[in-house]
Amino acid sequence: MLEKKEFYINGQWVAPAAANDYAVINPSTEEQCAVISLGGQADTDAAVAAARAAFDSWSQTSKEERTRLIEKLKEVYLARQEEMAQAMSQEMGAPIDLSRAQQVGAGSWHIDGFLKAFEDFSFERDFTSSEKTLLEPIGVCALITPWNWPMNQIILKAIPAMATGCTVVLKPSEIAPLSGVLFAEFVHEAGFPAGVFNLVNGDGPGVGSQLSSHPEVDMVSFTGSTRAGIAISKAAADTLKRVSLELGGKGANVIFEDAHPKAAKAGAIRCFRNSGQSCNAPTRMLVHKSRYDEAVEMAADVATNTHVGPASEEGKHIGPVVSEAQFNKIQGLIEKGMSEARLVAGGLGRPDGLNRGFYVKPTVFADVTNDMTIAQEEVFGPVLSIIPFETEEEAIAIANDTPYGLTNYIQTEDTDKRRRVARRLRSGMVETNGQGFAMGSPFGGYKQSGNGREGGVFGLEEFLEVKAVSGWAAE
């Protein structure tokens, strides 16, 4: 069993101020796979102090020097990517092939995206012939990241923060902390100056709250639940620090009558990916009545034929959900759905042959109406709700009838309709006809899905202050 009790503070691995062991559970087996320590106020204070002390010098380093270190970090990341894949597979249950290709791959892809965006990024912009606008690092940034896509979220925060001259304190999820600890090793190996990057493990009520309210933290960037995002915003309000939030979602996948014949199949596969543990998953499938029965049958077939198994197995199956608490929450929502709608695949309990581990049956509900619990609450598991519609206006109204606004999806061969509907969907992202987003595309949401954007130029700007300076030109 791994012991990862130390924190990375001021360029060194240090013991916690007070012992507070926490078991990391492998969700495939329900067995303890590691032990970490949860930090306390003294650890948080030490990490913030290190970041504050490093800020003056780091913020004045050249763009070229920061680029060099990020490129070195990418080299280390790629050289040790199998370690990272194994860590994420073990801690949060991503099947090893998915972990290698997508969990690890998301991280390296975003590093490339930031390096590309950084090439032509200017921290000085002419406003008039004599006035200059400067973009300057905001300061010490607390990065609080989730367990479902660990490297995706750590890199979307840590790389742009450090690239723009900020110093950081990372608190990864205590449920899946091993990847964060490994990333700290990568940063150290790459040679970043002491104090630029710091890591303290802890839970939300502890280190998370301490960072959010800390007077020496200038910004909090958080990814997680809407409930936690609200708590962080309240904790940060007393010091008026900037808060960037990437929260929950309840994405609508609108399948019009002229959609691709396999649109429903692709939508179900996408919903179940990563065991449904993605904030941008298309969990509400809105289908035109002329295609409705066909879509229900197709989605049920996908659910029935989606293999569920241990994360250590190679293949295209889905693994367990991350924890017992998550498993119980999903089971409760499935049970609620069975009292509201028509169950056409999956249901309660583990899949056949799996008696241990937090495995959930891929589940499909039909005849769902948008006022049902399963259509409004974020399940964060492999559960799909299918809703019929008759008109374009009805589809738009249903899609927008949610407190969330992260990602919506449109399936139609009519270009004018696709553009028209995309403009009216209240979400930060709209994916159409399965066309993925380009490198550096802004990731973020409307409404209770949060604020701010991650990725590319938008992600760099998130960590910058704007300063106007008059009389810049020589007289």
UniProtKB/TrEMBL annotation:
Transmembrane segments: none
GO function term, MF aspect, one: aldehyde dehydrogenase (NAD+) activity
EC code: 1.2.1.3
Keywords, comma-separated and alphabetical: Oxidoreductase
Gene3D superfamilies: Aldehyde Dehydrogenase, Chain A, domain 1, Aldehyde Dehydrogenase, Chain A, domain 2
Domain Aldehyde dehydrogenase: start-end pairs: 13-469
Reaction catalysis annotation: an aldehyde + NAD(+) + H2O = a carboxylate + NADH + 2 H(+)
Entry's family note: Belongs to the aldehyde dehydrogenase family.
PANTHER family recorded: ALDEHYDE DEHYDROGENASE (PTHR42804), ALDEHYDE DEHYDROGENASE-RELATED (PTHR42804:SF1)
Protein name: aldehyde dehydrogenase (NAD(+))
Organism: Sulfitobacter mediterraneus
Lineage: Bacteria, Pseudomonadati, Pseudomonadota, Alphaproteobacteria, Rhodobacterales
